[in-house]
Amino acid sequence: MDLKFIKYEKRNHIAYITFNRPERMNALHPPCHVEMDNVWDDFVADKSAWVAIVTGAGDKGFSAGNDLRWTAENRGQVLEGLRAKGGFAGITARYDIYKPIIAAVNGFALGGGFEIALSCDIIIAADHARFGLPEPRVGLMAAAGGVHRLPRHVPLKIAMGMMLTGKHITAADALRFGIANEVVPLKDLIPTAEKWAAEIMECSPLSVQASKQAAMDGLGIPVQQAIAKHYDLQAKLFKSKDAIEGPLAFSQKRKPNWTGE
């Protein structure tokens, strides 16, 4: 895969995805979104990749969002970004990734950068990280899902306060509001994300994916409908090799050997 703006590697069932434009605070431009589409396609298709960790290069920015300088300099090419089917960073408008995604926020997560983090399942933040949707301050809005996801993550008044003022919040506030799962010193950021990934991978990858799919598909509908909606998913899971291995390993008092099949 030919990638110029993204680093992508896989080790021990973990896919590491790094926005690699530190000179622009990892702000993303249309070619980045197209590359990220390809990365997510590969992650979904690779049965040996069970968890993704997303972060930014350097120690200042996870992602400063949309590269406004690039937009100003390349007005005629902005539509190129529409070729990214998954939206901003290939993720904000993609709803078929049921493998868990961890955002390791290593600095500023602003605008689209915050929207990327909100699209992930777990957020680990460095203690100097900051979050915000400052789009109204430059005549825009957080249209890549931020205006919808943030009010679903935090109380409405907190979300409106952030969105209508464009103010940043600290990592400590993100933890207090329930946006971040854990806040750690920068040196511990990736190891902590890997710790979470390891704990996830103690579970069956198929069970994890089914749990995420059922939870996400059930949002916004009554519980009775949500439960009925995942009957087929549950039946498919119960027929898997992992569903046989789990109870067997438990009865034999050993760790299960998950295959994702």
Beta-strand fraction estimate: 15-25%
The largest sheet is: 6 strands, mixed
CATH class descriptor name of the largest domain? Alpha Beta
Point out poorly predicted stretches.
none
- Let me know the average pLDDT: 94
List the helices and strands in order: EEHEEHEEHEEHHEHEHHHHH
C-alpha Rg, in Å?
Answer: 19 Å
- Return the CATH architecture of the largest domain: Alpha-Beta Complex
What class do helices, strands and sheet pairing give? alpha/beta
Strand order of the largest sheet: 1-2-3-5-7-10
| Portion of residues within helices | 40-55%
Morphology: globular
**Structure summary, number of beta strands:** 10
At the fold tier of CATH, the topology name of the largest domain is: 2-enoyl-CoA Hydratase, Chain A, domain 1
Note down, in words, how this protein is organized:
By secondary structure, the protein is of the alpha/beta class. It has 2 domains: 6-200, 2-enoyl-CoA Hydratase, Chain A, domain 1 (Alpha-Beta Complex), CATH 3.90.226; 205-251, Lyase 2-enoyl-coa Hydratase, Chain  A, domain 2 (Orthogonal Bundle), CATH 1.10.12. 41% of the residues lie in helices and 16% in strands. It has helices at 30-45, 68-73, 112-119, 146-153, 156-165, 171-177, 189-200, 205-218, 223-229, 231-238, 241-251; strands spanning 6-11, 14-19, 51-56, 61-63, 101-105, 108-110, 122-126, 130-132, 168-170, 182-184. Strands 1-2-3-5-7-10 form a 6-stranded mixed β-sheet, with helices on both faces. Strands 4-6-8-9 form a 4-stranded mixed β-sheet. The longest helix is centred in the N-terminal third of the chain and has 16 residues, at 30-45. 38% of the residues are buried.
